[in-house]
Amino acid sequence: MLAYMNREAWERTLAEGEAFYYSRSRQRLWKKGEQSGHVQRVKAIYLDCDEDTVLVKVDQVGRAACHEGYESCFFRRWKNGQLEIVGDRIFDPKQVYGNKQPQQEDRS
Fold this sequence. Notes:
Elements: H1 7-16, E1 20-23, E2 28-31, E3 40-47, E4 54-60, E5 76-79, E6 82-85, H2 93-97
Antiparallel strand pairs: 1-2, 3-4, 5-6
């Protein structure tokens, strides 16, 4: 998955050992898995050479990082001019979130 992290998200991630991100749409911090329970426990953190990009390696609780029920948010592949689903759905989002789906960026 790809997400944004501000200073507060960075500091909470370091302090608590679970991934926190910043939602630009809601203008607030969110803990990955705060609704679903599918939290991300931090294994390692890497920064790029400019120190402006963070790679967080995690143990994904519940096997699914995607709000649509897939292991990864990258479950669609562009091939021959169209998208194809290349992953298996691990959970039903309606059972986890009910009829109130989280906003695009905040799905956890």
